[in-house]
Amino acid sequence: MSALPVAGGGAARPTVMVVDDTPENLTLLGEILMPHYGVRVASSGTRALVAVRIDPRPDLILLDVMMPVMDGYEVIARLRADPETASIPVIFVTALAATDDETKGLELGAADYITKPVRPSIVLARVHAQLELKQARDILRDQNTWLEGEVRRRMAQNQMVQDVSMRALASLAEARDNETGNHILRTQNYVRVLAEQLATLPGYAEILTPSLIETYTKAAPLHDIGKVGIPDYILHKPGKHTPEEWEIMMTHAKIGSDSIWRAIQDQEDRVALDFMYVAMEISHYHHEKWDGSGYPDKLSGEAIPLPARLMALGDVFDALISKRVYKPAFPIEKATEIILEGRGKHFDPDVVDAYVARIDEFRQIALRYTDAGEE
Predict the structure, then answer these.
(1) I need a surface site. Which of 226, 296, 309, 337 has the fewest CB within 10 A?
(2) Residue 166 and residue 358: Cα distance in Å, rounded?
């Protein structure tokens, strides 16, 4: 007997599939169900597994246990093993009455049992109950899916607002320094590339997770936020600074970290603001040097936070290849020569090696975000 509809039934009605190797049982159950549901039948377990994938797909299966070739236990096991059919409720219809048989079926995932000879009122009551449960599960699943999508959408919106706000703040500092928003984009991408390269090394693989790399990347734009606190006559001076002016200029690192700290110190959710703590480290320490000759704290080696060591190279590289009032833009080859000379002095040796390994990506980033007038 083929897996074809026994009778019609509106598309809005739930569909019940009856699986039994005895034609009389198929006819009897079909007659009981047809006034209320769309009914499909299959005369063997093998045919049922094929029919279950054909529209209209069943909302519920009435499954005989004792069938040749493939019994009901094997059928339900296969249904449950397939993600496409795992959630379809199954009611066993069987002449078996032993408790062990019932237990085995329930353990395999059967929703209920109906014993033969069947009584119409029992069949309808149990089918109705299982279809109501399935409808409730489907509604809950759809609601959860919608809620998950809504949460993702809201998180994406919040992330966008956060990123735009970060870049707006960073751009304020860059604008005062006669630099451009492209400097922010370039240095942000340099930090990301360096972190990704370091993450391939055994000493960094466990530390530099994709999530932490994203945090470093997100925090990088605020590296020079402290420049908003530097007087214009110093910040925009075209020539060399006097020692006194340079002392003031160097305070921008601490001004930046202090301003970030004032903004977050009263917030209790440290995890949600991880990127701001990283931004504070980058702002404060990105002018430190590996040999301890930098500022503001003259830290050396690994005492300098890792994101600041990444930013140190990215920031210097970008300054070297960019035109400034006091210098022309250097070619990347010249910038590379200067960075290599600073290995173990200005820069973390591992970070320099990461730069060398990914120099082609630095070149692509520099071209992608070239400042207007410097193409």
Answers:
(1) 337
(2) 26
Distance CA 97, CA 254 (A): 80
Runs of H (alpha helix) within the chain: 23-33, 45-51, 72-81, 99-108, 120-176, 181-198, 202-205, 210-219, 232-235, 243-250, 252-264, 274-285, 306-321, 332-341, 349-357, 359-368
- Contact between 211 and 195 under an 8 Å Cβ cutoff? The reply is no
Asked if the peptide bond before residue 56 counts as cis, ω within 30 degrees of 0, the response is yes
The per-residue pLDDT for range 54-92, each reduced to its tens digit, is: 999 999 999 998 899 899 999 999 999 999 999 899 999
* Reported pTM: 0.59
R_g (Cα) of the chain, nearest Å = 34
Expressed in percent and rounded to 5, the helix, strand and coil fractions of the chain are 60, 10, 30
The DSSP 8-state label assigned to residue 88 in this structure reads S
Tell me the pairing of strands 5-7 and 38-42.
antiparallel
Q: Are strands 15-19 and 38-42 parallel, antiparallel or unpaired?
A: parallel
Interatomic CA distance for residues 111 and 113, integer angstroms: 7
